[in-house]
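Handout, section B. The chain below has 388 residues.
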Amino acid sequence: TMNKIGKGTGKNVQKYLSQAKKLMGNCQTAVPAWIMPINKALETMDCNKNHFDIVIIDESSQSDISAMAILFFAEKAIIVGDNEQVSPSAVGADNDRINQLTGNLKEILPFSYHLYDLKTSLYDIMMAFSSTTMLKEHFRCVPEIIGYSNNLCYNNRIKPLREGSRVPIKPATVVYQVDGERTKSKTNAKEAQAIAALIQACIEQPEYRDMTFGVISMLGEKQAETIERILINSIDRKDYKKHRILCGNAAHFQGDERDVMFLSFVDSNEGEGPIRIQGDGANKSTKQRYNVAVSRACNQVWAVNSLDTENDLKTGDLRKDLIEYLANPHKAMQNDIKIQKNSESDFELRVCRELSKQGYNFKQQSEAGSYRIDIVVLCEDRRIAIEC
């Protein structure tokens, strides 16, 4: 019956869709597990007739508030997601309609229903009802790559389980600076040309023979489109398909991965002093994009940029932190090992990691007479003692 619908443009679409919903009640009992997009489940199933013992919602941090409807089909639900990854964007949403819909949540969320909109993910909402279980074992990225996200978003609780020594391409992180210039349309021609040339060069090397490639623009989509045009015109179609080359922004890659990822920062500095600081963004949106962009790379990540981190970027800028980390990932990893070694409790470890993340200079287990102070934060000739 669903096949009869075809592209969904015929006169009888609603008739077949209505019939499919009726028949689905019989189909469900014959198949123990159904895997489908949320919109397809809502379209083809009847919540009064189709009930499941367990509904697992994957990538729930990308699902907006409308996905709550799927819970009508579930006796129990497992919500899988990551609120440190890209959230729904709500582009072109009707705010009046959204306010009307969120008003319906007042009965079950009397104190917080007004906070939700289409930028709120299903994962965010369900966190109000249940404690979370964090999956800490990480299999995708080599340790040098996931170390950035680990420090940025997860307080170094992630345990990398991939063995980097078995990866044929080295090093895991590369910072590649060009003399590029950002345009008003958020493109950077020299970065685009450099990335296209680098991918062409990689394809010719035997160690990259079976590798897949991705390109992420760290600023908008125009740069990704520019790079894609250059690659399509310069790389053989067979190679393009073989290496699964994909260009886009961080959201395009969520739930996906590539062996080698190229990041184009796009920004440049045409003024005298440092450029405007890039913080976490509204609702952590920029921080989430950076986390996703880096952690899509399995074996190697390239930071192609037109920035002088010393003179163009201020302390605390996400661009500065990322470029400096990728220039020397082992420094950050060794620093965390040192912090772990000197911490006498989990609480103390978390405090030290947060201090390190924010750029403070501190000393652990500092002697004071016959005692030791857990942490002493240093700034010129001033000191602050912290006991945990």
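Note. The CA atoms of residues 17 and 208 lie 47 Å apart. Compare this with the example in section A.
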